Structure formats: C-alpha cells, structure tokens
Fold this protein.
Amino acid sequence: MIKIRNKKDCCGCTACSSACPQKCISMEPDEEGFFYPVVNEKECINCHKCETVCPIINKTSKRFPLNAKIIQSKDSEDLSHCSSGGFFATLAKYVILKQGIVYGVGLDESLKVTHMRATSLEQIKKFRGSKYVQSDIVGTFQKVKMDLQAGCLVCFSGTPCQVSGLLCFLSKKYENLITFEVVCHGVSSPLLWKKYKNSFSHKIVSSNFRSKHYGYKHGVMAHAFDNGGTYYQSGRTDPFLKCFFSEISSRPSCYVCHFKNQERVSDFTVFDCWSFSKITHLTDNNLGYSNVFINSEKGQSLFSKISKDFFVFESDIKLAITLDGAMYNQSAKQNMNRDCFFQYLKKHSVNKTVKKFLRIHWYDRLIETSKCFFFR
C-alpha cells in the first residue's frame, strides 16, 4: 500500500486514490491544507495498484521538445483574461468545437480552486488565467478515463505532476488525449487561500490572480466585491501573492520537484514570455506572450491546425529557457521560515502571519495605494 513517510515524496496528484480497486484510499488535508492519501488498512487487499501508478515512484516516458514558438492570441477578449498569450484558451476552443471535452482549473462558486470538466465555450472561460493554488483534482482522473474510453477527444491541463499522475493512472496511450502543462512556480496551500479570501470585510465575487489591469508586465491580484468595490495589489503588497512569490507557502514536494527537467511527458509545455523583444527583436505590445514548447508529433499536428488563431513567432528552446524559463528546470527554493509560517498561520490571520514573517513595508503600500482601489 502507498505510505507517505516523507511529504516531499507526494505531489498530491490523486493517481493512487483514483486507481484503488477497493476505493479505500481517500485524499485528506493535513494541517497545512495540502491533500495526501490516507489508506483504510482494513479494506486494503495489498494489490499494490496504488504504488504502480504513483508518478514519483514510476517514471513515465519523456521526450525533449521538438521545437519552440512564441504566440499571442488574436482574440482580444481571451488575451485580456489570460495571464500571458492565451495559448490554452485557443486550444480549449478547438477541442470544444470538435465536440470534445476539456479539463482545466477554475474557481467554483465559493472561489475554491478546482479541476473542472467543460463541454461548452462558456464553461472553458473559467480556465483562463493563472491560479496559484493547488487545485482540488479528486475524482477527475476517473472522469477523464471514462471520456477517453467513450471515444471522446479530451484535453487535460494541469501542472507537470498532475499530467504525469494522469498518464501513470491511465497506464496506456490514448490517441484522443491531448495533454497541456504549465511551468509552475510551485503550488500554494488551499488553506492559505481560504483564509486569505475570507479575510476581507466584503465578500469576493470574482478573483484574478494575475490581472492585466496595468498591463502584462505589471500583473496584479484583482478582486471584485459584492458591494461593487474592487481591489488591485501587486506581489509586493498583496498578502497571498507575497507568500507565493516568497516561496513560503508551497507544497513540500515543490521544493524537490521530480518533474523539473527538459524532458517532458505532455504534448505542450507553456510558460510566460517576458523576453519577447530580446528573442524576436520586435516591439513588445505589453499584452502578453507565451513560450510554447511542442513536445510530440501530436502536438505538432494540433499546433498547425490552430496556428491561424495566433500571432506566431519563431523561437529557440535554449534561449527561451535561459531568458524566461528559470522554473522550467529548477524547483522552488524553500523559504527558511516556511514551517514556522504554517504553524503560526494555524492560530492567526493571514495578515498577521504575513506581517510577522514577510513584512509588507509601508513604503511599498504607499506606492501601491496611489493606483489601487479597495472598496470604492
């Protein structure tokens, strides 16, 4: 049976619980809010299926990127709502228009970050934009498998560990499966996000973790409140973003990520293109660009079919990684106060915890408040 002796050895992908024939493995949150498998030993039949699908124990076959592109969506609405160039939004549209099914990460009615199944153009709008929280993915892998076995075209997006977990769970290749991964900085605790969103005096009705309100190069946390108020804060002054970028709130496995290398399991790997001008020698319009690595022949074929919907620029794999891909090969670097941070957070508010361990300086807040609206 699966036993997590060191939390750094579990990425929380749910492959083990999804594959258990006895349904005796549940995903339970620990004191930090991250989910880990818990085995009901009385029901366990020691079939070891859980161990054979773990993407950390069992490595899936990987491949080097075939080529690299820089893209920007021609759809102005998608581009404004996406964190970078809008590649996944366009790929998802293609799948939906082919009567396919898309799995992505969105915010539910309570603003919980969760994996969702979409079958319409309206539903995939929830997948636009970054979410810097580990998504609730429980039950998703079984749904993906059922859709694949039914012959549906399926696109699954997630972090590299989630994509690897799905492929290990499926344990066979499906030609009707498209996989898309984002290069991530690590994933923050769902508990931290819950305490943060509940810390405001008014109810948040919508959130954007990286709004382009001030342009692509100045992404901010944005909220709309039930009283009509709005909120915009940068990573220097927003408590949640401050935690995320300080690498104090990530899952333990993110600090020793088993999926950070140049070889990838997905069809597409995507990350921000901050260095558009340096790579292309063209003027950056500050609307957002994406580095897209195409890792498979399937990816090549798909890209050619949707490329008409992008402005496409040639790139170089090594140069893109050097300039923009710091997190492509590197794990998050653990903040020295991480463990104390979570111990303190259990008993105190997010604002008090951040003030104690990270300290949002008054000078920074003065700069930010000159252009931010809290409850207008």
Residues 366-376 have pLDDT under 50 and may be disordered. Residues 67-187+250-329 form one domain. The longest strand covers residues 204-211.
